[in-house]
Amino acid sequence: RCWDPSAALAAATERVRAGTLSPADARHLFDELLQRPTPVPGQALNGFLAALARAPASAACGDSPALAVSLFNRLCREASPHASPLTVHTYSILMDCCCRARRPDLGLAFFGRLLRTGLRTDGVDAYALIKCFCLAKRTDEAVSVLLHRLSELGCVPDALSYSVVLKVLCDDSRSQRALDLLRMMSKEGGVCAPNVVPYSTVIHGFCKEGKVSKACDLFNKMGQQGVKPNVVTYTSIIDALCKARAMDKAESFLRHMVDNDVRPNNVTYKCIIQGYSSLGLWNEAVKIFREMTSRGLMLDDVTRNSFVASLCNHGRSKEAAEIAHQMIESETTVSN
């Protein structure tokens, strides 16, 4: 029976997804592929590499993205030109692999190799390319590629490409630059029109920098653009307001959140409880705690124990006992 490379790659792809393909198995497969005079089937190869790129660590293979890069390099070294079905899609998969393997330098090297091949670049994965620049800490170049180079390559940037740059700018405390980019996204529209994620990213960036007023302004602008904030958006602003001791405004955002059918989570309530506690406003802190538990939510153990201890230290033993009792009840319910 004739050995079918497409079928062999398809079977190996299923084993990757099942977490049972080892590096030795993959190398043996490529031994077979590269010994054959017929071209390696490009579509099946891309599917196999893409599966490796996205495979989590398993007992069989601890680093599938790195394995994909290694196999690709071997293919380039050992395959004859007619047996190398390398397309722009193949290179895009490999750039993604490099990002996942935390080797953006290799991803950019693959991009350089792609440019030297003379292949058309209009199918290159813009997100993978931009992410390589961002992970390599080359943020200004990422912005330049996003705004200028992609169009030269025949690529169309999308919201995901913008979002990865926004996050890096905000992580670098350059939220104002991120805001400028966000405005460009809104102006561009179409596939670049910002949704809740880029808005939340920039709002969180301003909050981390202590620029709460700018965060609130952007929150309002977001609503005017018809983009509904989510729990992450609200919690970022509530946390910043609590740290600024603006508890009235923080609770106002909490009420706005509930009124707009966005469910607060443990972190949301934790921020407000800690904010009130830091000001010695124990009645308000306990009230928020009761609201939180009425929604079936509980503080994490460290925060809860600290809250109980603070109540005891400030003569609030009755409230502390109530919270301790709820802790015991919740643990009993979970164990049952």
TrEMBL record:
One of its GO terms (biological process) is mitochondria-nucleus signaling pathway. Transmembrane segments: none annotated. GO terms for cellular component: chloroplast. It comes from the Eukaryota. Gene3D superfamilies: Tetratricopeptide repeat domain. The keyword Acetylation does not apply. Coiled coil: none annotated. Keywords: Repeat, Transit peptide. InterPro entries: PPR_rpt (IPR002885), TPR-like_helical_dom_sf (IPR011990). PPR repeats lie at residues 87-121, 158-192, 195-229, 230-264, 265-299, 300-334. Belongs to the PPR family. P subfamily. This is Pentacotripeptide-repeat region of PRORP domain-containing protein. It comes from Aegilops tauschii subsp. strangulata (Goatgrass).
